[in-house]
Amino acid sequence: MLAISLAGTSWAHGMRVGAKLAALALVSISLFWVDSPLLLILVLGCVVALYATLGAGALRQGVILMRPIFWVVAIIMAFHAVRGEFGSGGVIILRLLALVGLANFVTLTSRLTDMIDVFLWMLTPLKHLGVNTGAIGLALGMVMRFTPVFIARAKQLGQSWRARGGTKISWRIILPLFITVVDDADHVAESLRARGGVK
Amino acid sequence: MERNVVYIAVFAALIAVLGLLPKLTLISGIPITAQSLGIMLCGTILGAKRGALAVLLFLALVALGLPLLAGGRGGLGVFTTPWAGFLFGFPVAAFVAGLMMERTSGMNVGVLATIAAILGGIVTLYAIAIPYYMVGADVDLWAAMVTMSPFMPGDLIKTVLAGVITGGLYRARPDAVLSRA
């Protein structure tokens, strides 16, 4: 399964994931108190500059990740424009672009395995509350393994549906997909138990 | 214990699968992505706690950088938009739908699941997503409702599908519908 992150050895890849996440959280929270358009343009410029230090490929990837945001921006601008509030609409959009850009930058420059390690580390205090954090790590791995398997199975069910005269993939494949999946789940649970269970 | 963990994991995977499939065509020919159907089904099939945990597990993997949201989106950036109220509302939606399934009995499971899906996947979800969008995009209630209205008919259809699928699974594998166990 492919993660979004960019392979690379840049300065940003070298930074500790925990440090990047802490910085992101700090900047994101601070930005909510910034209402000056000039300052926000400056911040957005810095975010673009961050991408630029990684090269053209990173800039292109950044824009691709931003694409779904552009129509959100357009809709927000339209509603603010109707009320003639170009200024406040502009501030919201500048802040949004900076926040999303920065968050995506952290995702792009952090390996999935490192992110998972930090995530599991962040969960360790839950152990004291009686939460089985080992089970969470196991479940993360299972989702990553099962997702491509189930996608392949759904496509297969879609093909059988077409072979029997259906046209496009219909919602009717969802129930058979779920039945095969819960059967698998029961088998996996049994074999986990047979191998010593979830500890 | 093992069964709970595995069910939570496979349902988190199913949310991803429903979002990544090519758009499904409904009876009327409207194409929709089925990701929010996956959220409803987590609640109606797994029940409140396990359903919410499956959704949280799915969201954790999205945040960690896997492109599992409909349209292949993912990463930390998706949580910082004004639309993220839907993402934060997803686990609550599954919880409410699951709670309704656990606390009621006697009625047909499919009908009950449809009502639970409406209560969780529409009422609860929009009760979180609309105020979140109003604050995030700095718009009034009317503007937020107009912006989201194109999704509501599709969501209503999905609640009916959630009922049909939950009812069907209950007939085929009654033990798998943990919310009724």
Which keywords apply here?
heterodimer, A: mainly alpha, 0% strand, extended, B: 181 residues, mainly alpha, two-stranded antiparallel sheet, 70% helix, 2% strand
Q: How would you sum up this structure in a few lines?
A:
In chain A, 75% of the residues lie in helices and 0% in strands.
Sheet with the most strands: spatial strand order of chain B: 1-2
**Low-confidence spans of chain B: pLDDT under 50, at least 5 residues?**
none
Q: How many DSSP E strands of chain B?
A: 2
* Main β sheet profile of chain B: 2 strands, antiparallel
Going by helix content, strand content and strand pairing, the class of chain B is mainly alpha
Q: How large a portion of the residues of chain B is in β-strands, by DSSP E? A: under 5%
What is the arithmetic mean of pLDDT of chain A? 90
- The chain-level mean pLDDT of chain B equals 91
**Which series of helices and strands of chain B comes N to C?**
HEEHHHHHH
**CA-atom Rg of chain A in angstroms:** 23 Å
Shape of chain A: extended
Percentage of residues in strands of chain A: under 5%
- Strand pairing plus helix content of chain A: what structural class? mainly alpha
Largest sheet of chain A: none
The first-to-last residue Cα distance of chain A is: 26 Å
The count of β-strands of chain A is 0
| Oligomeric assembly | heterodimer
Binned, the helix content of chain B reads 55-70%
Tell me, what's the shape of chain B?
globular
